[in-house]
Putative N6-adenine-specific methylase
Amino acid sequence: MLKVLAGDARGRVLKTLPQDDLSIRPMLGRMKKSVFDIIQFRIPNCDFLDLFAGVGSVGIEALSRGAKSCVFAEISKVSLGLIKHNVGMLNYNDRARIVRCDVIREFDSIVKKYDIVFMGPPYKDGDKKALALTMPALKNVVRYDVLKEDSVLIAQKHIKEPVGHVAGLDHFRTEKYGDTVVLFYRRAK
């Protein structure tokens, strides 16, 4: 059961796919709590971007905790339907924008400056083949210049996915949760 952890929607259950459908991998509650504990003081009144949004649980958590706005970027029609349902159920429609786009090829459709950017790309495709989408998504964040001077960029990836240095980003923190790694970046000075 996927729940909102804190804020005005605390305890509300989000609609997701059945547990045996692994096409969407929502962020685990323990990991989500830890990440939001780290960024909690940056959330009120922030502009949040949720890339590869899945069911929207990360962006909805931000809205529940007081984010001014959230853009949910996702390519899957099934996921977009779940995000729309969850955002509407919580009456966040006026602070949410749901965009169907391929984060790697159509990033220009979500260009704006954000205070917090989160990306949780899928680890594998439908044939269980590794995708390695983190690095190209990080490069798009820099290429399209969506970070403000003091923004935080958070990238969730599989522990085996290689991610090297990205020009324009300063990597300042790493957290590990089982086979998942969460990388924290800020704009390079």
Observations:
- The longest strand covers residues 147-158.
- The radius of gyration is 15 Å.
- The chain has a mean pLDDT of 92.
